[in-house]
C-alpha cells in the first residue's frame, strides 16, 4: 500500500528535490536513530516544506529514518529518477538510511518501515550489481557502516541450543526472524566485495582485522542460511585481500582451539572447514612450516570433540588435501588419529575407521611402513570389538584394493599382529556377519601366503597353551590358599582370605 501511495505522488527533478530536502532538514527537529525498534525511532515534525513537494512524502521519510541521516538528499527517490552525476550521493544516502535496525521478534511492529527499508536494500543490491556504483572511499565507508549496523550482533544465550554444537540429524535448525533483511544485506556485501570497481588497497582500511573477527563471530549463528552466506563471503574476502590471509587462518585456528579445548560448542565448524578445504587446495609447494603446524595443532585435534560427526566429511577432505600436497604427512596424520582414537564411544570409532580408510587410500608405501605397527595393534583391537559395527567396519578395510596391496607387501609384520584377533572372531564372535567377514579375510591371507598363516596359527596355539597353563596354575594356587585358610578359625581382628571368585576383576 505504501509503495502504491508513493508511486502516485508527482515527481520533480532531482535538483528541486535536493533543494526541498535541504529546506525541510533546516526546519526539522533532528531525531536520533535507535539500534532497533525496541528503542523506538523518534519521529520528526516537518517544518515549512518547499513548494510543489507533498508533505506526505516528507512525513514518511522522517517517520522511517531520522532527518540527520538523509544528508540533504531524499533517499526514497529511485536511481532511475536522478541524473548520473547525482547517483553516487543518492547511493550513500540510501546506505545511511538503511543503518536503522528494527526488532523482528514482533512482525507487526513497524511493518511499514520494515517494508520500505527492504525495498531500499533491494535497490542497493541491484545498483551495485549493475556496476553503476563508483566504489570510492566514501561509498566503501558507507557500505561497511551499514553492514556493521545490520549484521554484527551478539547472539543471546538462549539463541544457542543445548547440543554440543552444530545441527544433529534429529534437531530442527533455528531460523532468524530478521532473515528477510539479513539476506539482502548479505547479498549486497557479496556483490560489494566481488565488484570489479572495488580497490582492495582502499577497502582494506574498512574491511580490517576487527571487521573480519566480527564476521567470523557470526559463524556461530544457528541459522544455516546465514552460515552459508558467510561461507561464501569469507571465501571471497580471503581471495580479494591477500594481506589478510595469514590473519584469517590464525583467527580460524583460534576458533578451533576454543571449540576443542574449552567449549565444544560451535555451529559453524563445518562451514569454516569447507572454506579451508578450498584454501588448502591452493597452497603452493613445498608447504610452508606454518601450514604443517596448522594441520597438527588445529585440524588433528578436531577429532577430539564428541560431535565430530557433524563436520567429519569436511575435516577428512582438508586432511587428505594436505597428504595429496605432501605425502610425507600421511604418517603424521595417522599418528594424530591414533592419539585421539576413541576408547569408549563405538559410534565415533566407526567414524574413525571410515576416515582411516580415506587416509590410507592416499598413503604411499614408505609412510605406511613408518606407522603400520601401532596402527594394526589398534585395528586388531577393533576386530575383536564386541560392538559388531566396529568389528565389521574394521574388516571392510580389506575391501579396499590399495589397502590390501599395502598389507600384502608387509604381511610378515602385519599378520602376526592381527592373527589372534582373527582367530578369536572365528571361534566365538556372536555376530554372524563379523564371523563371515573374518573367514573371508583369513582365506585371503591363506591364498596370499599359506605358510605364514600356518606359522601364525602354530604360534597362536602355543601362546594359547601357555596362557591356559598359567590360568590353571593360578586356579590351583587359589584352591590351595583357600584350603589353608579354611582350616584356621577366624578370631578377633584376624584378616579373612577373600575367595577367588570375589577377588577376580574382569578387565
Automatic annotation (TrEMBL):
GO terms for biological process: meiotic sister chromatid cohesion; signal transduction. Residues 16-53 are annotated as: Disordered. Residues 41-53 have a biased composition (Polar residues). Residues 21-40 have a biased composition (Low complexity). GO terms for cellular component: cytoplasm; protein phosphatase type 2A complex. Residues 420-507 form the Ig-like domain. It is found in: Cytoplasm. Keywords: Cytoplasm. One of its GO terms (molecular function) is protein phosphatase activator activity. The keyword Cytoplasm applies. The keyword Heme does not apply. Belongs to the phosphatase 2A regulatory subunit B56 family. This is Serine/threonine protein phosphatase 2A regulatory subunit. The B regulatory subunit might modulate substrate selectivity and catalytic activity, and also might direct the localization of the catalytic enzyme to a particular subcellular compartment. Its main location: cytoplasm. InterPro entries: ARM-like, ARM-type_fold, Ig-like_dom, PP2A_B56. It holds the Pfam family B56. SUPFAM superfamilies: ARM repeat.
